[in-house]
UniProtKB/TrEMBL annotation:
<dbReference type="GO" id="GO:0005737">
    <property type="term" value="C:cytoplasm"/>
</dbReference>
<dbReference type="GO" id="GO:0046872">
    <property type="term" value="F:metal ion binding"/>
</dbReference>
<feature type="binding site">
    <location>
        <position position="191"/>
    </location>
    <ligand>
        <name>Zn(2+)</name>
    </ligand>
</feature>
<keyword id="KW-0456">Lyase</keyword>
<feature type="domain" description="3-dehydroquinate synthase N-terminal">
    <location>
        <begin position="75"/>
        <end position="186"/>
    </location>
</feature>
<comment type="similarity">
    <text>Belongs to the sugar phosphate cyclases superfamily. Dehydroquinate synthase family.</text>
</comment>
<dbReference type="Pfam" id="PF24621">
    <property type="entry name" value="DHQS_C"/>
</dbReference>
<dbReference type="Pfam" id="PF01761">
    <property type="entry name" value="DHQ_synthase"/>
</dbReference>
<keyword id="KW-0520">NAD</keyword>
<keyword id="KW-0547">Nucleotide-binding</keyword>
<dbReference type="InterPro" id="IPR056179">
    <property type="entry name" value="DHQS_C"/>
</dbReference>
<comment type="pathway">
    <text>Metabolic intermediate biosynthesis; chorismate biosynthesis; chorismate from D-erythrose 4-phosphate and phosphoenolpyruvate: step 2/7.</text>
</comment>
<dbReference type="GO" id="GO:0008652">
    <property type="term" value="P:amino acid biosynthetic process"/>
</dbReference>
<dbReference type="GO" id="GO:0000166">
    <property type="term" value="F:nucleotide binding"/>
</dbReference>
<keyword id="KW-0057">Aromatic amino acid biosynthesis</keyword>
<feature type="domain" description="3-dehydroquinate synthase C-terminal">
    <location>
        <begin position="188"/>
        <end position="332"/>
    </location>
</feature>
<feature type="binding site">
    <location>
        <begin position="113"/>
        <end position="117"/>
    </location>
    <ligand>
        <name>NAD(+)</name>
    </ligand>
</feature>
Amino acid sequence: MSGEQQTVTVDLGERSYQILIGEGLLHETGKLAQQAGISSKSACLVVSDSHVAAAGHLKKVTDSLRNSGYRVAEAVIPAGEESKTLAVAEQVFDQAFDAGLDRKSAIFALGGGVVGDLAGFVAATYMRGIAFVQLPTTVLAHDSSVGGKVAVNHPKGKNVIGAFHQPKQVVYDISALRTLPLREIRSGVAEVIKHGIIWDRSFFEWIETSIDPIIELDSRILANMLARSCAVKAAVVSKDEKEDNLRAILNFGHTLGHAIESLARYGTYTHGEAISIGMVFAAELSCELGKTDRASAERIRNLLQRAGLPTEMPANLDPAALLQSMKQDKKATGGKLTFVLMSEIGRVEIINDIDETVVLNLLRRLGRSS
Ligand SMILES: NC(=O)c1ccc[n+]([C@@H]2O[C@H](COP(=O)([O-])OP(=O)(O)OC[C@H]3O[C@@H](n4cnc5c(N)ncnc54)[C@H](O)[C@@H]3O)[C@@H](O)[C@H]2O)c1
Ligand SMILES: O=C(O)C(=O)C[C@@H](O)[C@H](O)[C@H](O)COP(=O)(O)O
Ligand SMILES: [Zn+2]
């Protein structure tokens, strides 16, 4: 394994923080928390999920925190998207109270995007907001742990109940990724590919040449890949923290992707799988509206397929229902559809008020050919 460590900064003035990427960093959680100014006078809570705890990662974190003098409680939620609810958040609030967390306390989110989003939401709202640290353990969480979007789902939509609340630090121990199932590795690579498409053509081209070692988590390239992908996210968030406009480009593929996730029932498709299909759709829609060329759309589909991700519309989902769900997307205003469309690989734009007949016809056409 390579010992190379990477640091990416999210530049947000007094709320700036670092993303530390390297091997074995979970053993350093306590020391790094001290460096980030997390107080050890108050109790802290490590939130994780059942798979991450069973893989042994939780113990590394609690041991390290205790060795650095922190008083530590644990909250382990059931693994999976179905846990990203207000009901589970309420259980974590109870555990925070029981452990005596106060306004100087911190929450450590150890897991993938589900744990990060949920624990971050609890941190954003408990006593009107306390500190939190992201300890991502999935490939996908290079995206979810950065940028401060924290949320739980509502039966009517993904991430609808949430806030912007930046972590104090992101500690990304890439050795924890070795216990991830292959399907989850592929899922995370979808967001890596997204970062190439929306911002960095040379990164997309590098992924094209490296996709096989990426899926194998080749240690010679893993830290670099995650640092490059986090750097895209950090650059966008630093320019538009609360999604006034530019940040919406990070939603490429998510207009349809989120609709698929909620209509197919959370957990049927992973987040990365759903946005893979959503990115193919966004690229096709970009072609249909004359914004990009067919070759670029095909290139995206090919790379996603080579990453082992689904690219076909789910045959069992009704296009009219998908359209309805997309109209409730957070980017939509006044019931008008908003999509992130592509002009070329590396460049996208946010288009409001897209003709819904065009979208519906394309959903039907792609659904028939799948
Ligand atoms: N806040 C954001 O900016 C943002 C960005 C992207 C995605 N998200 C959200 O992130 C969520 C998806 O995140 P995810 O794909 O990480 O899903 P996840 O958190 O459900 O993790 C995927 C699976 O891997 C398991 N797992 C996690 N780490 C493991 C490890 N090291 N070893 C073994 N198993 C492990 C989990 O228990 C789970 O079963 C979605 O809810 C999505 O909406 C948020
Ligand atoms: O950070 C962002 O902004 C993103 O859009 C990143 C997405 O990958 C992520 O899935 C995010 O949770 C979606 O945000 P939402 O506002 O559409 O719920
Ligand atoms: Zn996403």
